[in-house]
Write a structure and sequence with these properties.
The protein is α+β, with helices and mostly antiparallel strands. The chain has a single domain, classed as Arc Repressor Mutant, subunit A, CATH 1.10.10. 41% of the residues lie in helices and 16% in strands. It contains 4 helices and 3 strands. The protein has a 3-stranded antiparallel beta sheet.
Length: 87
């Protein structure tokens, strides 16, 4: 991951770390058509986020790897538990 992209991916992960977000909300806020700023794609490619279907909803949440990446960059504690997902 490039140094210029890393802060943006960290911002995305930090935003998602508050709790699972609806996929549509994530796409509206973070998807870009600019090939130089593939923030969402980098997060997915590195295994930092996953998409989970709960009923009719598609939610985006951090993986353990995503939480570790945040913690390793001073954005949250490693011991912070993952939020529970209803369903």
């Amino acid at each position: 991951m490039s140094d210029t992209l890393s802060p943006l991916v960290l911002d995305l992960l930090e935003w998602i770390s508050a709790g699972p977000r609806p996929y549509a909300e994530v796409m509206q806020a973070w998807r870009t058509s600019c090939p130089r700023l593939p923030v969402w794609e980098d997060a997915v490619d590195h295994g930092f986020v996953l998409q989970r279907r709960t009923g009719r909803d598609l939610l985006v949440e951090l993986t353990p790897s995503g939480r570790d990446f945040l913690a390793g960059n001073g954005r949250c504690r490693r011991s912070e538990p993952a939020p529970e997902i209803p369903g």
